# Entry
Amino acid sequence: MSVRRRGKGWELSYRTPAGMWKRKMFQGSKAEANAAYMRIMTQIKDGSFFDNSIREKQAFKLLVSEHETELRAESAVKAQRFRNCSSALVRFFGEKALRQITTGLIEQFRVARLAGRLNKGEVNKATVNREVGTLKMLLNKAVRLGYIQKSAATYIRKYNVPKGRVRLLDADEKARWFAACADSLMVRDISIFGMQAGLVGKDLAQLRASNADFRRSQIVLTRAKTGVEVSIPMTKDVRAILARRLLGVTDPDTFVFRRDDGTPYRGHRTALRRIIGKAELKDFRPYDFRHQFAADMVWAGVDIYPLAMMMGHADVKTTMIYAKFRKEHQRQEGSKFQEFLDAEAWRVSNATKTAHAQAS
# Structure
């Protein structure tokens, strides 16, 4: 680490916090060169030094890879969730240097994502908000590591998304649903598991014989999304389906919903979407079966806290979106009570009139 004369200027030699030797040419007097050198050394010492060469080389996809590796060492579930949120980001920003990611480019990503140009179909605004949130986290990390000086996502505002979207099927829609899937026993069974056990997606695809506890009449599994173990009571329909699909099965690792070769059946999402179109249901997704299950449990009188454990929610606040159904239930119960009081008042009034008539 020194200041040396090189031609008409001065060469400043120093080691960066990353351990790399750097040489920088400075034009001016020796006193000015020494002052510039001392400023660099002070920045290195107090941690405010910034190396532009790192920024030039660091690509966005490398930052994503580094973060995913860190998460995998901590939790496979967290790594998978991060991969799901970052896959579209990597497709759009992957080869770009971190310094090339601007606010305008992020807006282009949001528009392209909503229009469905980065995937097979359109996604909703809530999904884009989650992905941009992941991008903000990564760019803030890049700032802390010294790859960039500031984040381009700081002033990106989230899309307004209605909170607590819950789409449920009424009695007529349920009838149309099961009529539409009458020709497929697999889809019918999957639908019943969604409505009566709240199992969809990977939780359903990975369901094995070992998850069925017939003695306690429960399904015990670890949720793929959160890694939380849940216990879900079996209804008569769910128990009957499990008994039929696991008849003669001795291997506990056997998939409940499986193909002829024993591999898990993974076409449930496509099949359910086909039924949605056939039953002419609007604004309904396969994931809404979880909402249906939770709402029906609340209607049945199940408390919010046990329901949160069945759903695998880490925070009961997530489950509180279903509390409004309890309020509606209470209102209906209140109206029934009022109807009883009205009928009772009518009977009392009639009895009074009869008594007066007899007395006269």
Notes: The first strand starts at residue 2 and ends at 6. The longest helix spans residues 323-359. DSSP finds 15 helices and six strands in the chain. The chain has a mean pLDDT of 83.
